[in-house]
Design a protein that fits this description.
- This protein has about 90 residues and is mainly alpha-helical.
- About 70% of the residues lie in helices and about 0% in strands.
- It has helices at about 1-30, 55-90.
- It is elongated and about 75 Å long.
- The two termini are about 20 Å apart.
- The model has no long low-confidence stretch (mean pLDDT about 75).
């Protein structure tokens, strides 16, 4: 039963990480000003801040953090099960 719980926790964590990575491109998608309309007047874009981090780097950091969290969760669960198993057999 503990093995099933461990596998289920790992699958749920990895599914959450996959959903986070799959949803990230949609969150950063946007259309340029005037898209779909005839360009009668030029659009002026004011730059508020220079620099920043590109979206692909943010996505990569989020995916890495989710992967690390999944690995830590699986290792913590395995350590907890191993400790509990040894305590009951002694």
């Amino acid at each position: 039963m503990n093995r099933i719980r461990s596998i289920r926790a790992a699958v749920a964590t990895l599914a959450g990480a996959l959903l986070a990575v799959a949803g990230a491109p949609a969150a950063f998608a946007s259309r340029p000003p005037g898209y779909g309309r005839p360009a009668t007047t030029p659009t002026t874009v004011h730059v508020i801040a220079a620099g920043g981090m590109p979206g692909w780097q943010i996505t990569l950091i989020a995916a890495g953090a989710a992967l690390v969290a999944a690995i830590v969760a699986v290792l913590a669960d395995r350590a907890w099960v191993a400790r509990r198993t040894h305590a009951t057999t002694a």
